[in-house]
Amino acid sequence: MNEKRLDYLDMVKGIGITLVVIGHSPSISDRILIWLTSFHMPLFFVVSGILFTYKRSERETFGAYAKRRFCGTIIPFFCFSLINILVDLARHISAPKTVSWEPVRTDIIQTLSFFGVSVLWFLPAFFLGGMCLYGIVKKCPVWLGWVVAAAGVVLPSAGAALVRTYIPAGESIFFTWLSQVLIMLLRAFSALVFMLMGRGFYFVLQKFHKKAVWEVLLGIGCLAVNVAAAFANIGVDMHYLVLNNVLLYYLGAGSAVFGLLLICRNARPFKLPVFLGQNSMIVMVTHMDCRVMRVSILFAEWVNRLIPGIVMYRISLYAALLAGELLLILLINRFGFFLIGRSRPIKSGGR
């Protein structure tokens, strides 16, 4: 299996995870949020499909591939779900009159259903989508892959609407759990579509070689298509499978990611986004669920009292977020590597 990293893919992931963090920060405008949600989560599934093809992962045995995917997704899912549960439990115990038991109960149900607490929804979708991709590439004829992709475009959004209509999620713990399980399974279809899209992008990029300036211009054009699609299809959310016009959603997300791929492939690698891309999993699971965002907001509010103004507020917020995430990346890679499914400390750079 090819183990050489492609810096431009790490840079794309670094940009993607930065946009995810920005999208979860306060004071972001509605228009920017509309644009970000149109592609920032699909980006990681598309890149996964590219890497699957680049590494020829279908040549692995089923057991080896499943073990690697499980360690890299489901172990972090349970580890960081437990952290969420313990944090909310500690808050309830320390202030039972002001902090209810409900967040703990919600955390437990979302963990046992694999629906995911907060951003952790991404991990089961990543695991199941990857396992389906392996099966399709390994065992299925090409035409069946196209059929599955077409079904995956339509099924998640339509299925989620049926779940919300016919399963009374709020009436009992069982129905809540069942609705969350079904939404989680439907997300895997959407993840699979983007992974198959990434597989297609890999073959296109292998054959598509123009002058750098033309590739960058085409990349900018793809981003323009994404912007048009995003504002024609306002209010999408892959987390809850609110995709609205599914054709616009997949067109917009695919255009944005392909545009970034073309631009980054012809750009000089910048160390910071490459490093963040190499450690995007850590940033994904910690920026909300380990309270990095909350601490950064408190710091920015303190700075804002000393130096009022939205510009200084945002500078201090993003500086605190970056510092917090860099510290966590170093600590987890060195001492908490087991939290992200690794059996040994990770060398500098996440390689």
Q: Which spans have pLDDT < 50 for at least 5 consecutive residues?
A: none
Helical content class: over 70%
Helix/strand-derived category reads: mainly alpha
**Alpha-carbon distance between the termini?**
15 Å
Task: Describe the largest sheet.
Answer: none
Number of β-strand runs: 0
Q: Count the helices. How many?
A: 14
Radius of gyration: 20 Å
- Number of discrete domains: 1
β content, as a range?
Answer: under 5%
What are the secondary-structure elements, in order, as H or E? HHHHHHHHHHHHHH
3D shape: globular
Mean pLDDT reading:
92
Task: Output the keywords.
globular; about 350 residues; mainly alpha; 14 helices
Please provide a written account of the structure.
The protein has one domain. Helix content is 73%, strand content 0%. The chain is built from 14 helices and no strands. The protein has helices spanning 7-23, 30-37, 42-54, 62-94, 102-112, 122-139, 142-166, 173-207, 212-232, 246-265, 271-278, 280-286, 292-306, 310-334. Helix 4 runs antiparallel to helix 6. It is globular. The model has no long low-confidence stretch (mean pLDDT 92).
How are the secondary structure elements laid out?
Elements: H1 7-23, H2 30-37, H3 42-54, H4 62-94, H5 102-112, H6 122-139, H7 142-166, H8 173-207, H9 212-232, H10 246-265, H11 271-278, H12 280-286, H13 292-306, H14 310-334
In short:
It contains 14 helices and no strands. With 351 residues, it is an all-alpha fold.
